[in-house]
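Box 3.1. Reading complex inputs
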Amino acid sequence: MEIEIVNLREIVGIVRGTFLTKQPQLDLEISSCGASDLMSDVLSFMKPGSLLLTGLVHPQSVRTAEMADIAAIVFVRGKTPGSEVIGLGNELGIPLIASPYGMYEICGRLYKAGLPPAMK
Amino acid sequence: MAQVIKFTKIQELIYELPIERVMKKDVIKVSPDASMKELKEILRINRISGVPVLEEERLVGIISIEDLIKALVEGDIQAPVRKRMTTRMITVLENESVVEAVKKFAQYKVGRLLVVNEQGLLRGILTGGDITRGLLEAISLDYHAEEISRYRAKHIFEDIVSDQTSLILRYKVKARDFKRGGSASSKVKRALDRLGAVPEVIRRVAISTYEAEMNLIIHAEGGGELIAEMQPDVIRITAIDHGPGIPDMDQAMSPGFSTAPNWIRELGFGAGMGLTNIKKSADSMKLESTMGVGTQMEIVIYLRPEVREESNLNHGSGVEGSCRP
Amino acid sequence: MLRPFLADLHIHTVLSGCAEVEMIPPLIIRQAKRLGLSLIGITDHNACHDVEAMIQASEGTGIHVLPGMELQSREEVHLLCLFDTFLQCQQWQEEVSKNLPPLSNKEAFGAQFVVNPLGEWIRTEERLLAMSTNMGLEEVVREVHSMGGMVIPAHVDRPSFSLLSNLGMVPDSLEADALEVTPRFIPSIGMQRWPQLKDWCMIVNGDAHRLQEIQNRTQFTLAAAEVREINLAFKGEAGRKVTVKWPVPG
Amino acid sequence: MPSLKEITQKLNLEVVSSASLVDRPVTGGYASDLLSCAMKGAQKDYLWVTLQSHLNVVAVASLLNLAGVIITEGSQPDGETITRAEKEGVVLLVTPKTTFTVVGDLTLLGVKGDS
C-alpha cells in the first residue's frame, strides 16, 4: 500500500467529522494515526505529528496530545467532549474533531485512505 | 516459629462439602418426545439456556439453546428433542466432593454439570455460581459452629467456679505396646472435641500428643505417663518417662534422625519425624533429659488460634517513611 | 488527644464479584484485628450494600469502619470515595446508581452477595456493579466533596483502571485528597517513573479481595477517625500525619 | 466475512487461549480500550480489538459471546487470564501491531464495524 500524506480537510471528510475547535488549519498535514483510550499508551508510543483517535473525553486527552505533539484528535461516536475540553483545545491550538463513527469504522476508513500507523 | 501446615477454610470446604449440598435440586427437564418448538417455550419461560432430557426417570441427553438455534436455522423446529439432543453428558455423583465438580468444569469447559446418584438417576444440576453460593453459606455456617463451640467450652469452665480451673487427664503408656499406640491421644482428642475446641487446634493437639505417646512406647524402657492439663485458653501435655534418656538433644531434634531399632521402623514408626512434628504443631515445646534418670517433655498449645496466628502474619515488612517520600 | 490509627482504606466484601467468599464481615473484622488495624474503609465496586453490615460487625471491636465505595468513573478510573456516615454514603449511592448502566451480571464477573453482619446471605445483587458510571473524574471529586466525603484515586500505579494508566498522568486540575498506591510500589522507582507524584500524599492499601491481602502499612495520627481529620493528616497539618511502611527494593 | 481461523492466519496472530475454538464465524469488529464501551458496543460473534489484557477482558468476551479478542501492541495476558479464558472458551489472540493497523487489516479482509 502506498503511504500518503493526508491533510486535515480530507480527514474530516473521510470520518464525516465536525470541528469542535475554532479556525482549524485545514491543510495541516497528518503523516500517521493511532487509536487508543489509554493516555499512558499514547504518551509512550505515538509519533509526533500524528492523529489520535480516542474514546476518552477528558481534558487529559488534550493535555496528552500537547505532551506527545499530537497534531489533532478525533473523538469517536457518542463521545462528545464538554466545553472545558474544547476550551483547552482552542487554547493549546490542537484541532478537535467529533465523528459519528465508532473507533473501528474510523480506523478502517483512514487505513484504507493510506494513513500509516503511528507507532514509534 | 515453625510454619503450621494449614489449608485455607475454602480449600478445606471444597474437599469436604458434598456436591448435593450446593447443587440445584429442582431441575427443569424435557422429554425426548417433546418437539423443539416446545423446548423453545420451556427455555423462554424459565429463562434458562439448556435442560437435561429424561425418558421416564432415565437421563438420555442434554439439549441447549445452541441446539435450538441450529434447528431453527435448518427449519427443523418440529423435530423431536431426541433427534437434536447431545448424548455426551458430563456428570458428577451427588456424594462426591465439590472439588470433583471444580475439576470437571476446568476439564470440559462446560457451563453446567448434571448431578446423578449411583444408579445414574438425575438428582440435580450444578453451575459455577452454585458452588460459590454454597461455599458462602457453608463458610458462614462453619463460622457459627465455631462460635457456638467456643461458647460451649467457655461455659463449662465458667460453671465450675475456682480461681483457676483445669481439667487433668492422666494416661499410663506401656513400653512397646504398639497395638494400643495412640489410644491415649485419641482420648485426649475426644475430650477436647467435647469441650468445644476449634477443629484446627484439635488437629494440632492430636498430632503432638500422638507423637509424644509414640515416643514413650518406642523409647521408654519402663513405659511412662502422659498428662493432659486443659485450661480455658491453653492445653499443656506432659510426657514423663524413667529412662534411658536422650544422649544428644540437638541430634534428637533434627528431622529424620532416629534411634529407633530396625524392627520398630519396620512397623512404620520411628522415622525420626516425631519431635519435628511436635515442634511444628505446638506453640511451645520443652524437652529435658538426664541420662539414666529419664525424659520429660512439655508441649503447650493455645486453644484460641488467633493467639498463635498473630505471630504468623507476614505483613508490613519495610521501612517506615512519610507519605511523601 | 492525638493517637495512631493503623489503616487499610480499600477492602472489598462479597458484594464485589471478584472477591473471594471469605470476605464476609466477621472474618474481615477478625483479620483486621489480627493485623492491628483500627480504621478500615469498605469499598465495593460502585456500591455500599454491605457497608451497614460491616459497621454492625465492627461494633465493640475498636475498629472504625469508614463507609465508602470504589467508584469507576467514565474514564474507567477507580476512585475510593469515603464518608463519615452511612447516610452520606447512601446519598452518594443514589447518585451512582442513576449513572450506572442497567446491565445484569449473569455472574460472568462473579456473583455479588449482600450479607448480614454475621456474613449470612441476604440476597444476590443482579445488577452488574463493576462497570463505568457515566460520571467524569472531576465531577466525582466535586460531588463527593460537596457531600462531605473524600476521594482517593485507587492503585494509581496499576496498569489498568488507574489514573496513571488511563490518563497518562495526574491532571493538574484534580482536587483529590490523596493517592493510593499498591503494596508493590517502591518509592525510589515509582518517583522516577512518575515525578509528578512528589506533590502528593500517597497511602498504601490492600485492595483486598481475600483476607490475606489486607494491609497494615499506612498509619494515621489523628484526634478521631473522621474524614476532616484524615484530610488534615494528608496535608500534614495541626500535628496530624500519615506514615507509610514502604517496601524495600529487591 | 472470513472465519476467525482465516483471520488468525492472514493477520499472523498468536493464539494464546482456546486454540481449538478458532473455527468459528466472525460477524463484525469492535475496537476500544474501555471495557464499559465494549460492553455496550460489541456484539455476539464480533471480534474485539483492544490493548487491554487483564482478567475482566475475558469476562466481557464470555458474557457477550464474542468470536475472540485481539490484544494489540504485544501486550501479554497473564497466566490467570489465560486459564480463565480457556475455562470460558474465550479465544485470545496477540499481535505486536497497533489497534489502528489491526483494524485496518481486518477492514481490508471484509470484517465490518457498525457504521
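In summary: The first strand of chain A starts at residue 6 and ends at 7.
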